[in-house]
Design brief:
Blueprint: E1 7-11, E2 17-19, E3 32-36, E4 42-45, H1 47-61, H2 65-76, E5 78-81, E6 88-90, H3 93-99, E7 104-109, E8 114-117, H4 119-126, H5 129-136
Antiparallel strand pairs: 1-7, 2-6, 3-4, 3-5, 4-8, 7-8
Helix pairs in contact: 1-2
């Protein structure tokens, strides 16, 4: 089970691809899944980790209409992706628009997945009170 840590800033190329950090690349050599995620970022998942995440969500959704809707939205906003030999991750245009990715992209290790953020929005996210308590601890 892979774990992802750190923050790395890279630029989108003209084809809408971002370079993954070298340490992350082997985990996505056979592909992965890119999805819309919380707080307006994108999440990159290894296939097995996404499967676990979705199974948990489906189990909870059995008793909750709100969680069924969340499961539906998560599934619809998830795309299979392949990282090329140079470590470039293609980001479908709908996902780039959702996350407002243009120019610089912050690649953030989020333990069991990787998040993609516009740097300004990441800094704004860190300014939220619950984040500040964690950062200053």
């Amino acid at each position: 089970m892979a774990r992802f840590y750190g923050e790395f800033e890279h630029s989108l190329d003209v084809k809408g691809r971002v370079i993954l950090p070298v340490a992350f690349r082997p985990h996505f050599a056979a592909g992965g899944y890119l999805s819309k995620f919380d707080s307006g970022c994108l999440a990159l998942w290894e296939p097995a980790e996404l499967e676990k995440e979705m199974e948990t969500l489906l189990a909870q959704a059995a008793t909750s209409p709100e969680l069924r809707d969340l499961a539906r939205v998560r599934a619809a906003g998830t795309h299979e992706v392949e990282v090329d030999r140079q470590g470039r991750l293609p980001i479908p245009i709908r996902l780039r628009e959702f996350a407002r990715l243009d120019g610089e992209v912050l690649v953030v290790g989020a333990i069991n997945h990787v998040e993609l953020w516009p740097p300004v929005r990441w800094r704004e996210h860190l300014e939220q009170p619950y984040d500040r308590r964690l950062i200053e601890a």
